[in-house]
Every structure is written in C-alpha cells, then in structure tokens.
Amino acid sequence: MVTSPSPDSPTPASRRLRAARALWRVLGGRAARFAAGAHQTWRRSLQLRVVTITLVASSLLVGGFAYLIADKLTNILLENAETDVLLRLQNGSDYASKQFNLYSQPQEAQLQDTIDGTVNYLAGGDPAQTSGVVVAITADNFTTIEPRTSPDVQVRPLIGRELRASVAAGKVAHQIRTGTLDGERTKYLVYGSPVPTKFGQLELYYLVPLTRQDATAADARATVVATGVALVLLLGLLAALVTRLVVTPVRVAARTAQRLSAGLLDQRMVVNGEDDLALLAASFNQMATNLQRQILRLEEMSRLQRRFTSDVSHELRTPLTTVRMAADLIFAERDEFDPAVARSAELLQAELDRFEELLTDLLEISRFDAGFAMLDSEPTDLVPVVHRVTERLAGLAERVGVAIELDLPDSPVIAEVDPRRVERVLRNLVGNAVEHGEAKPVRITLGVDQSAVAITVRDHGVGLKPGEEKLVFNRFWRADPSRARQTGGTGLGLSISLEDARLHGGWLEAWGAPGQGAQFRLTLPARAGDRLTTSPLRLVPADATLPFGGPRSGGPLAIGPGSGEGALAIGPAEPGARAEVAP
Questions:
Q1: Which of 116, 205, 236, 563 is 20 to 30 Å apart from 434, CA to CA?
Q2: The whole model's pTM is what?
C-alpha cells in the first residue's frame, strides 16, 4: 500500500528553503554584530583611526606613484623596441628594394630565390635562427609571388587587416598583436613597410617578440609594488608608534580623571621627560592637587556648616522653650490688654510657631545632610493618610477659598512606607498647592499598580515659569518673593519632601506651565527596597495644553530623585512609560 504525503507536510524544497533562510539569518546576525563591534572600535580608538587613515592615504599615494612609474617604464621599453625595429625596417626595406630592382617582371624565375635569400639575410642569415625576430615579405598584389618568412612560420594571423591596408597604401605602420608562432603564445610588435620595385610594390614585415620587455616591465612593477607595500607598512608602523606616544598619556589621563571623579583624590600621572606630554602630565597633576585641596576645603566647610546648623538648632531649643512659655502666658492673657498689645501677642505667637517649625526643619535637614535619617517602613494604607492631610489643611483651604478634590480608589492602597514621612510630603505638596491655587480647586489623585504607588497634587494657579522646575526643590527658594503667604512656611518643605522621597527609593517630580498651574507627583515603590521603573500616574496633566493650543502628550522636564538639590530628570508622560533619572 502506497501512501501519499499529507498536503500539510513539508516538502524537501520547503525544508531546504527554511534551512537557507535560517542560515541567512545566522550569517546576517553575525555580520551585524561584527559591523557593530567594528564601528564601536572605530569610534573609541583614536590610534586605529589614525593608523587606518594613514594606511589608506599612503596606499593611494604610493599606488598612484607606482602606477605612473610602471607605466612610464613600460612606455620607455616599448619606445626603445619600436625605435630599434623601425631602424631595422628602414635598412631592410632599402636593401630589399635594391635586390628586387634587378627584376622588371614578377614572373622572372630568379625572383623567388632572391626573395628567399633576402628574407634569410634580413632575419640574420640563418633560416633556423632562434632570436625570436620573424621577417616576412609578402606580395598581395602578385599571385605569382609566394610570401616568404624567416623562420618559416605562419605569420598571416598576426598581421592585421588594418596593418596590411596601411602598408599596401604605401605607409609604414605598426601594431602590437598576441599570437602563437612557435608553440608558445607571445606578444609581438609588428612593423610593416612597403618595398618599391620596378614591377610594383612588395611588403616587408618585422615581427619582434616583446617577451624581454614584458619581463623587464613585470620585474620593475614587482619591485615598485614591493617597495610601495614596504613603504606603506613602514608608514603605518610609524603612525602607530607616533600615535601611541600621544594616545597613551591621554588614556592614562582619562583613567586618572575617572579615578579622581570616583573619589580617589590622591591619583596622579607619572611625569617623564620635559616635552609637551610631560608638561600635560605636570599640569594635570597640578590641577588634581588644586582640585583636591578645594574639595577638601569645601568638604570641611560643608561639615562645619552642617555641624553649625545642627548645633544652633539644638542650642536654640532651650531659649525657644523659655520664650514659648512666656509667650503662651502672654497670649493666654491677651484679652486683658489693650488692642495693640493683644495684636502684638498674637503676632508673637504666630512667629514663634513658625520659628519652631523652622528649627524642626533645620534639624531634619541636618540629619539628611549627615546621613543619619532612618526609614521606618511598615505596610500602610495610603487612603487614610491622604484623608488626614486633607482634614489638617481644610481650614487653610477654606480661608483662601480653595476646594480640595479627592480622586481615591475605593479599595485600600497598601505600600511599605514610612507613614510619618509620606504624610509630611503630602502636607507640603497640598499646602503649596492651596497657597498657589488662586481660589481654584486642588485635585489629589492616588494611583497604584503592581510595583508602585503614586500621588499627584494638581493646582490651577499661576504655574511655573520655564526653568523653575529646576529650582522648585531648592532650599529657601520661592517662585515670587513679593507674593504674600498665608501660612508663612520655612522654605524647606519641598527640600525635605525630596529627601523623604529619595529615602524611600522613590521619585518626587514637578511639572508646571504659566497660566496652567502645576502638578507634583510622588511615586514610591510598593515594596520597600524595590527599584522603580514606571509610575502609575502621568506627570503631565491630561488638561495641559501646548503653547499653540494642542494637547500635551510628551513628558516635560521634571525634578526627580537624582543626586544633589533639585536634580533634573525626565518624567514619563504616560502611565507605564519608563522614567530615566539623571544621576
């Protein structure tokens, strides 16, 4: 029983086609990887580029020069051969003309013998000579005269039609032809000349082999090529050595600079000699020494500043407590004073509250600067945290006429965070939004995904001017110093909030546009210690517009968890977009 193949089964042709495609994919992938590696090496290696350019340029130059030399030498050899053959042809033509002028009719019996003797004489006197020169006399106009050659070979294939026509017209002409006369294919210089006689014109041809000239030219070309290759290699080697002398100190300087940037401030370059490269190394070392001195001085100043801030903050606690006790007593009895004194007591109480808050913020900043800030993470439902912040700021929002809108999930949003620090961040963000809300609603949105939680605070106030995204988290920075404040903040709230976000391994980003308000986004990992890659909420509000009125869909410049105050980052515009943070 014979079974036919299934229509769906692969045929041998289809299998070969798939195998060929797979082979091409493999070869294409390897070629792409090789090209990418070569391109990367070309971009990174200055020495490779210099040597390659030197080799290419010198190869072109030497190749052109070698071609000119070989061509000139070949022309000289050919001209010498032509001059020699032309002289022999003229002498032979004169001799043959004298011999043939003895006859007045081409039918004379002795004419053929005279032609044979003349050919042998012009060829060197021996019909069996082996010099390679072939002499031929033909009589195309006379059928009774047989052509003769010495040595006796068939030369007609080497005498071209054009050459025969030129000689028959009474001209001396020549050409170069390649053919086989003695069993070996050879290139010949063929010269022809008319031989005038009493009974008409005969044709004399000299066929001179160019074997010796070709061999001489080939030897010359080989010598020129070998010399050129040696010269190119020598130039490449010289370029590599010279480039190495220059590139090596530069590479050492680059490695030393990398170590210096990594904090190894005692790294220096070795100074050898007194040339320009030694001057570069000495200048680099001097620069590194000065930088080390300045960095150490700045570090000491920073340490003293942090210590001063911490000491002053602690030392002010005691007099502040005493003043607070006296102010509380005066404030409690303010109703018994006249209105001016009572108002002074209220102002004193308000400023003492602000002073105490400033001391608290300074102590917190000093702990961040000293690296002593600790994170007390625990599973926390962020929905109640948002509600607590809203309730605490409800009085301020009512006074300035700002409505706080909440967009919170119905289910709990659990994340491993420090609730005290998160609440402080939200209090600062919502407080600033209410301050700058221009009596327009402030919206708080809470979002969550599998790896992160995010909270955005959106206001519709004056917004941020271009470039203020870089400054908004700086300490004591205010967008409009002349603008009246309702809460009298310390100017450290957003700086502390940024440090709190970094301590969680999260992001605190800002967006703003003049006349469109601002939006701050706090993104925290759902599990402590995880690394953030996306945010559940977009940084740019959906109602934000471009200057020409179109919807804004791209991500703006934002402040993220980079190093230093107000580090600049690119915030993702859409949920799920990857956020790249500047180091």
A1: 563
A2: 0.45
Return phi, psi of residue 151, to 5°: -65, 170
What does each C-alpha distance from 161 to 92, 166, 532 come to in angstroms?
22, 9, 89
Q: Which residues of 243-263 are buried (b: 16+ CB within 10 A; e: fewer)?
A: beeebebeeebeebeeebeee
Q: What pLDDT digit, counting tens, does each position of 303-327 carry?
A: 776 677 667 666 777 787 788 788 8
**Residue 459: in which H helix or E strand, if any?**
strand 452-459
Structure tokens at 283: 């200048």
- C-alpha span between 146 and 138 (Å, rounded): 7
Instruction: Record the tokens describing residue 514, joined without a space.
Output: 């003049």
- Contact (CB, 8 A) for 120 and 114: no
Helical packing angle, 493-503 and 419-435, nearest 10°: 140
Beta strands 442-448 and 452-459: pairing type? antiparallel
**Cα(218)–Cα(74) distance, integer angstroms:** 9
Peptide bond into 12 cis (omega under 30): no
**Phi, then psi, of 73 in degrees rounded to 5:** -65, -40
**For residue 388, what are its two tokens?**
């607590």
Torsion (CA) 16, 20, 22, 23 in degrees, nearest 10: 130
Q: How far apart are CA 304 and CA 28, in angstroms?
A: 62
Q: pLDDT tens, 93-124? A: 888 888 888 887 777 778 888 888 888 888 87
Q: What is the DSSP track for 106-130? A: TT-HHHHHHHHHHHHHHTTS-TT--
**Residues pairing with 381 in the sheet:** 414
Amino acid at 83: T
Nearest to 149, CA basis, from 182, 105, 109, 107: 182
